[in-house]
Amino acid sequence: MKLTDFKFEIDDLNIPEEPLKKRDSAKLMVLNRAEKTIEHTTFDKIHEYINKDDVMIYNNTKVFPARLNGKKEKTEADIEVFLLRELMPENMLWDVLVEPARKIRIGNKLYFGEEDEELMAEVVDNTTSRGRTIRFLYEGPNQELYNRLDELGKMPLPPFIEREPVEEDKERYQTIFATERGAVAAPAAGMHFTEELVEKIKKKGVEFLPTTLHIGWGIFRNVEVEDLTKHRMDSDNYFISKDTSDKINETLKKKKNRVIAIGSSSCRTIETSVMASGMSKPGTGWTDKFIYPPYDFKITEGLVINFHQPESTRLMLAAAFAGYDFLMEAYEEAKKNDYRMFAFGDAMLIL
């Protein structure tokens, strides 16, 4: 498949800037791959499509306030630093983007916060034309530094959200599963779940299993090559426990039960864990797995996913799972029925 296969106009789409107050009141489109049927319902009824002994895989990554407004030493020039990922916790080194980058050089000191409680960092390396490596000059444990960054930072809302982030976004741009700090983008599909809905699903005999994939800013990077085989994903840090892998493998061996991934990040994690035998292997590391049609899914048998942007890697993953023509039909249905699109939008359940 080519990049142009995944282009569509977004001018007339319903793209919300904020999440629904009641998370599970979102619309849900249910796609049956075998029968090629489409149903329309609401997310709070997703339990009706999940069977006893199915397992649902969620991503427990937590988005942190990664946007810092500060000043450059001496000139007092305003700068914005976007914390992409922590490189070396023991040295407080971070990979960042800086705007305006042309004013920032190795050795510059950067200041954040009020004068009497300033947080200082030093630029130690150039990584790209915009990117830098900085070291926070902080005397204290890392957890104290994280707390300080959380106080000073703003949430990194997706680039298609035009409004500025507000304090409430620190809670609402987050899933109920979020426990492991490290992402700069939320697992959008997981944002529809509430504690009450999870309990309702569990009562059917369904188990929720955690994985971790710290979603990086690369998830929003445009695919720029027509030949998809030449696109390279940015690497994201992942972790899958022995307990999660063992239970996935038990479910696969039963055959009649399904492994359902909540979101593209959970799907990428479990598909990254596949061994030659087709079973899941526990582990941690970095994954640049790019899933696009055609792809032979070894573990994923169901997928909860939002409606994503044209030419995005998440759209391509959904097309690989649902089938390209069937997914495009679903997107046309979504447009006709005024589904909310993208990060704060509605969802699909593909079975």
How is this fold's topology laid out?
Blueprint: E1 27-32, E2 37-42, E3 55-59, E4 61-63, E5 67-72, E6 78-88, E7 93-99, E8 109-112, E9 119-126, E10 131-136, H1 142-152, H2 169-172, E11 180-183, H3 195-202, E12 207-213, E13 236-240, H4 242-254, E14 259-262, H5 264-272, E15 283-287, E16 302-306, H6 313-322, H7 324-336, E17 347-350
Parallel strand pairs: 1-17, 3-12, 3-14, 4-11, 14-16
Antiparallel strand pairs: 1-2, 5-6, 5-8, 6-7, 7-10, 8-9, 9-10, 12-13, 13-15, 16-17
Helix pairs in contact: 6-7
Protein name: S-adenosylmethionine:tRNA ribosyltransferase-isomerase
Function: Transfers and isomerizes the ribose moiety from AdoMet to the 7-aminomethyl group of 7-deazaguanine (preQ1-tRNA) to give epoxyqueuosine (oQ-tRNA).
Family: Belongs to the QueA family.
Overview of this protein structure:
The chain has 351 residues and is of the alpha/beta class. It has 7 helices and 17 strands. It has 2 domains: 3-63 and 171-350, QueA-like (3-Layer(aba) Sandwich); 67-152, Beta Barrel (Thrombin, subunit H), CATH 2.40.10.240. It has helices spanning 142-152, 169-172, 195-202, 242-254, 264-272, 313-322, 324-336, and strands at 27-32, 37-42, 55-59, 61-63, 67-72, 78-88, 93-99, 109-112, 119-126, 131-136, 180-183, 207-213, 236-240, 259-262, 283-287, 302-306, 347-350. The strands form 3 sheets. The protein has a 9-stranded mixed sheet. It has a 6-stranded antiparallel beta barrel with strand order 5-6-7-10-9-8. The chain has a two-stranded parallel sheet with strand order 4-11. Strand 5 and strand 6 form a beta hairpin. The longest helix has 13 residues, at 242-254. This is S-adenosylmethionine:tRNA ribosyltransferase-isomerase. Keywords: Cytoplasm, Glycosyltransferase, Queuosine biosynthesis, S-adenosyl-L-methionine, Transferase. It is an enzyme of class 2 (transferase).
